[in-house]
């Protein structure tokens, strides 16, 4: 099982704060994104193919080539604006 | 005030806080403290020509605290620091309310100024917080600013 | 927050002060304030290997206040500031007591950090204050530090 | 009349916080210093010829060539150490 989190503008656009998915074999963040777009449609494509997409796996920022393992927590969010 | 003795406090909370109390806590790093540099960020009343009524601040619980702690630890490797306290508020914030506090206690002021500004610049670009502004004209997510990326890339 | 609207407060006093109260006064510069950078200097417990018991701070009444105001006005010409407050204590001060406070309110943090550090660096080398340390080994006037001249000459 | 002020280490070494003198004709800070040394002796020479001497006339820092006029306030002090 993977836990997938969305924040801020992305959370609102997808109307999704969190979802859980079974891990596919030899899954990377890229293949996860492709699967989410396949299931979700155009709205999900717009968010997950955005130039602004930040990816964190287990709370560490990484790129889409990152391999995923069972139990990972994957977060998708726009550039941060705190402070 | 060796590096091993540095005391780090990181809080993400909805409640307000008192800078004087933060300063007292930082001072307890010991009699070697000669300087405290403190940055406090506030909700501004105007943004891009609109009048801001309030803000909502969202964060990524767990990752946010770890990211800030990592930034502070980087600062502690670069400068001689006695204690650092970072507080960032989340939830609903109105105009002129405090958003963020970064307090740095050190023996000498140069270390404190550099570390405090470094921590703020990094926090602005690396700690997972997001601001949504509510103005007369509606609501909108604040966009990341190029000037913040440039500020962080100086270090 | 135009340059004309800048509010400057300069106090030389023996009494202590409350940083949170200073911050509230700085914030009254208006809803355009997004940042307050505050420096507070403290009496350190050690100096050149000796344990400091207390300090006496002397100043040149009149000239001191004018010198500080002149420094703040220079800062206000270089950076976009909303309000500046400087408090410097005189008389007897013990270890860990506050000596000096420089608070700068501005729209953006870069202006606040630069102006606050500039004001401190200039104050250290140009405002007529003198410190006398009382240690176990006796009393001595603190000597001006080369590093302070260098810090001021950066600007 | 000129008012002459001494601060910090100099005040202690000369055991003098303030003194008042009648202005000589065409007096500069240099001629004032020479007169003070003549009147005061070695102790005053050590202070007023110190490399560390800072001079302020009417609360503005200046050099020893500064001309003095009646009513001026002249201060002698070592490098400042506040903050």
Largest contact between chains: B-C, 33 and 33 residues
- Read across the widest sheet of chain A, the strand sequence of neighbours is 2-1-5-3-4
User: Helix count of chain B, per DSSP?
Assistant: 4
For the biggest sheet of chain B, the summary is:
5 strands, antiparallel
One letter per element, helices H and strands E, the order of chain B comes to: EHEEEHEEEHEEH
Instruction: Name the structural class of chain A.
Output: alpha+beta
- Rg of chain B (C-alpha, Å): 16 Å
Mean pLDDT of chain A: 95
**Which regions of chain A have little confidence, pLDDT < 50, spanning 5+ residues?**
none
Principal-axis shape of chain A equals globular
Show unreliable segments of chain B. Answer: none
Helices and strands, with pairings:
The complex is a heterotetramer, with two copies of chain A (83 residues) and two copies of chain B (155 residues).
Chain A: E1 2-6, H1 8-14, E2 18-21, H2 29-40, H3 42-48, E3 54-57, E4 60-62, E5 73-77
Parallel strand pairs in A: 1-5
Antiparallel strand pairs in A: 1-2, 3-4, 3-5
Helix pairs in contact in A: 2-3
Chain B: E1 7-13, H1 19-27, E2 35-42, E3 46-47, E4 50-59, H2 63-78, E5 83-89, E6 91-94, E7 98-106, H3 109-126, E8 129-135, E9 138-141, H4 146-153
Parallel strand pairs in B: 1-5
Antiparallel strand pairs in B: 2-7, 3-4, 4-6, 4-8, 5-7, 8-9
Helix pairs in contact in B: 2-3, 3-4
Fold and architecture overview:
The complex is a heterotetramer, with two copies of chain A (83 residues) and two copies of chain B (155 residues). Chain A has 83 residues and is an alpha+beta fold. Chain A is built from three helices and five strands. Chain A has helices at 8-14, 29-40, 42-48, and strands spanning 2-6, 18-21, 54-57, 60-62, 73-77. Chain A has a five-stranded mixed beta sheet with strand order 2-1-5-3-4. In chain A, a hairpin with a 2-residue loop joins strand 3 and strand 4 (60-62). The radius of gyration of chain A is 12 Å and the shape is globular. The model of chain A has no long low-confidence stretch (mean pLDDT 95). Chain B has 155 residues and is α+β, with helices and mostly antiparallel strands. Chain B contains four helices and nine strands. In chain B, strands 3, 4, 6, 8 and 9 form a five-stranded antiparallel beta sheet that branches. The longest helix of chain B is centred in the last third of the chain and has 18 residues, at 109-126. The two termini of chain B are 24 Å apart. The relative contact order of chain B is 0.24. Chains in contact: A-B, B-C, C-D. The interface between A and B is medium-sized, with 17 and 28 residues. Strand 2 of chain B pairs antiparallel with strand 2 (35-42) of chain C, so a sheet runs across the interface.
């Amino acid at each position: 099982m993977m836990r997938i989190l969305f924040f801020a503008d992305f959370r609102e656009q997808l109307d999704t704060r969190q979802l859980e998915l079974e891990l596919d074999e030899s899954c990377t963040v890229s293949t996860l994104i492709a699967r989410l777009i396949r299931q979700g449609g155009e709205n999900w494509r717009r968010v997950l193919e955005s130039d602004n997409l930040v990816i964190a796996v287990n709370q560490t920022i990484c790129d889409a080539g990152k391999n995923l393992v069972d139990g990972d927590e994957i977060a998708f969010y726009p550039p941060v604006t705190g402070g | 005030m060796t590096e091993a003795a540095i005391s780090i406090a990181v809080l993400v909370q909805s409640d307000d806080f008192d800078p004087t109390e933060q300063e007292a806590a930082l001072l307890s790093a010991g009699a070697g403290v000669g300087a405290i540099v403190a940055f406090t960020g506030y909700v501004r009343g105007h943004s891009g020509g609109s009048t801001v009524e309030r803000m909502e601040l969202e964060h990524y619980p767990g990752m946010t605290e770890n990211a800030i702690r990592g930034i502070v630890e980087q600062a502690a490797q670069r400068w001689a620091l006695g204690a650092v306290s970072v507080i960032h508020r989340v939830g609903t914030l109105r105009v002129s309310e405090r958003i963020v506090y970064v307090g740095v206690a050190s023996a000498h002021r140069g270390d404190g100024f550099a570390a405090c500004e470094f921590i703020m610049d990094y926090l602005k670009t690396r700690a997972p917080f997001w601001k949504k502004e509510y103005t007369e004209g509606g609501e909108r997510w604040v966009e990341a600013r190029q000037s913040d990326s440039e500020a962080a890339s100086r270090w």
